[in-house]
Design a protein that fits this description.
By secondary structure, this protein is mainly beta. β10 and β11 form a beta hairpin. The chain is globular, with a radius of gyration of 19 Å. Keywords: Repeat, WD repeat.
Length: 364
């Protein structure tokens, strides 16, 4: 059960804003110079609003491992979290954010599925097919399973084996056909057009475990323990994977997370840096060293306000302009432990989880 902590919507953190406007950047000219020109033009477009801490609560008895925002609409808000305590939980709140002060998030379901802990989560939206959304979960038992919240157990019909180690990360490519999973130094591609996804491709690296994945409609990216980044194109018809870029020593230590926004790929690392890369060729665009005062970075997410959110060992959630990676607002402070996971909704929610098992829900 969750243990509420007395923090409410009255807690507010003000952020800097700008009234200047800039023209839209052209879609072409995506080389390093072109991206930097766009960065300068786009820097003045965002107007960060204040961030409101609606709720902070004890969600798990151990560190958060992963989180996703299942729903973020005017009528319903749902969050899924997993932890090293080997549990998986669904949190829900009815109504818009103005009502969260009253009702808050409540535990709707909690599972302790076999094979835990669960290290990774990925959302498969199936509303266009008239089906409820399902969540893929990657676990310690070298498997990927499926959950249709708020079911009391995982779907026993969907168990994706063949992994050589812990399933550290999962990614679903927009369009809903391809699921990607990673374990040890191996990337696997699964065809979700079947009731039970089928493995159609396997890519093994020479060295360096894959720690994070992110996918666009036509690319999949891998972040590695040796500090490197790699990218593969996804064929339009059969989905064949072709390596198109590799950036060795992209970071000085393991790369802990990645996120995509437009033509840029963002990465964070134990080396304390936040970097932006050209998503086409992995050329460096912006290098923000010592992003959290020299502390390790563990996670990042693109917020519904367009800003880049990062979490690290300094116990802070920091917000960055997505083009120049300059601080866009004051850091968000509420955690008493290292921030280990971040997730963003499509409307107004950002969720942060820490090493102590606490979750914070922000409106941005």
């Amino acid at each position: 059960m969750a243990h509420p902590i007395a923090v409410s919507g009255a807690s507010r953190l003000l952020s800097a804003s700008s009234s200047r406007r800039a023209p839209r950047c052209p879609a072409h000219g995506r080389g390093r110079a072109g991206l930097k020109v766009c960065a300068v033009a786009e820097f003045v477009k965002l107007q960060p609003t204040e961030a409101i801490l609606f709720q902070r609560y004890k969600a798990h008895e151990s560190s958060l491992a992963a989180a996703i925002v299942l729903e973020d609409t005017a009528d319903s808000k749902k969050i899924i979290t997993s932890s090293l305590d080997k549990t998986l939980a669904l949190w829900s709140s009815q109504g818009d954010c103005e009502e969260l002060d009253v009702c808050g998030f409540k535990e709707e379901a909690r599972l302790a599925p076999p094979g835990g802990p669960i290290f990774s989560l990925a959302l498969d939206c199936r509303h266009q097919d008239g089906l409820p959304s399902q969540v893929f979960v990657g676990n310690h038992a070298k498997q990927v399973a499926a959950w249709v919240p708020p079911a009391a157990q995982l779907d026993s019909n969907v168990v994706l084996d063949e992994h050589c180690g812990w399933v550290r990360s999962l990614a679903v490519a927009p369009g809903g056909r391809w699921l990607f999973s990673c374990a040890c130094n191996t990337l696997r591609q699964w065809d979700m057009s079947r009731a039970v996804p089928r493995c159609v491709a396997t890519v093994s690296l020479d060295k360096g475990d894959i720690l994070a994945l992110v996918a666009s409609r036509d690319r999949v990216y891998a972040a590695n323990a040796d500090g490197s980044l790699r990218a593969w194109s996804i064929g339009r018809k059969a989905g064949e994977l072709t390596e198109v870029a590799c950036r060795k020593k992209a970071h000085g230590e393991r790369v802990a997370g990645m996120a995509l926004r437009g033509g840029l790929l963002y990465s964070v690392s134990y080396d304390g840096s936040l970097k932006a890369w050209d998503a086409d060729n992995l050329d460096i665009v912006v290098d923000r060293s010592n992003a959290h005062g020299g502390e390790r970075l563990h996670c990042l997410a693109v917020g519904p306000d367009g800003l880049i959110y990062t979490g690290g060992d300094d116990k802070l959630v920091r917000r960055w302009d997505p083009t120049l990676l300059l601080a866009a607002a004051q850091p968000l402070l509420c955690h008493n432990h290292s921030v280990r996971t971040l997730a963003a909704g499509g409307k107004e929610l950002v969720v942060s989880g820490d090493k102590g098992g606490e979750v914070a829900v922000w409106k941005v």
